[in-house]
Amino acid sequence: MKIQKLESINAFVAVDLENAPGRGILRASKKILQGGAKDLARSMTYGLASLNLKETGISAGISTTPEEKNEAIKTFFEEISEWENEFTFTAGLGVKSEDTAEDKPEEKLQLLAMGTVISALSAKPNANT
């Protein structure tokens, strides 16, 4: 698990497995905690694996005021576009889908399926198919 902090704003990306494309959630609020983001990234990895996708789970957080949120989200995507990794974000707390450039509705369905699997495994950890 790696926490990659951004240089231009108070933000980070929790990356479960390095050197792999990733998919996950972007949240923005006054204070986003890294501990919860790590757990969410790991859960995303398990969910992606359950769908036979060779990707890492990621979870990003932007700590910002409501007044500066739109600019912070824009700056976040500008900075991570320079990274070598290919990451796809879905809107989470405090972020609108149009802020994340979600252009693939099937990705939302996959995330919904992952959430269902993760919830089921949390409720029944010894379950299998």
Per-chain topology:
Elements: E1 2-5, E2 11-15, E3 22-29, H1 34-50, E4 56-63, H2 69-80, E5 87-91, H3 105-123
Parallel strand pairs: 3-4, 3-5
Antiparallel strand pairs: 1-2, 2-4
Structure description:
It is built from 3 helices and 5 strands. It is of the alpha/beta class. A 5-stranded mixed sheet has the order 1-2-4-3-5, sandwiched between helices. α1 links the parallel β3 and β4. α1 crosses α3 (105-123).
Task: State the main characteristics.
23% strand, 3 helices, alpha/beta, five-stranded mixed β-sheet, 129 residues, 5 strands, Rossmann fold
Q: Domains counted in the coordinates: how many?
A: 1
Q: Categorize the overall geometry.
A: globular
Biggest sheet: strand arrangement: 1-2-4-3-5
- Average residue pLDDT: 86
User: What is the first-to-last residue Cα distance?
Assistant: 28 Å
What is the CATH top level name? Answer: Alpha Beta
Radius of gyration: 14 Å
The CATH topology annotation reads as: Rossmann fold
The major beta sheet can be summarized as: 5 strands, mixed
The SSE order reads EEEHEHEH
Q: Which homologous superfamily in CATH is the superfamily?
A: Leucine Dehydrogenase, chain A, domain 1
Secondary-structure content class:
alpha/beta
Strand content: 15-25%
Percentage of residues in helical conformation:
25-40%
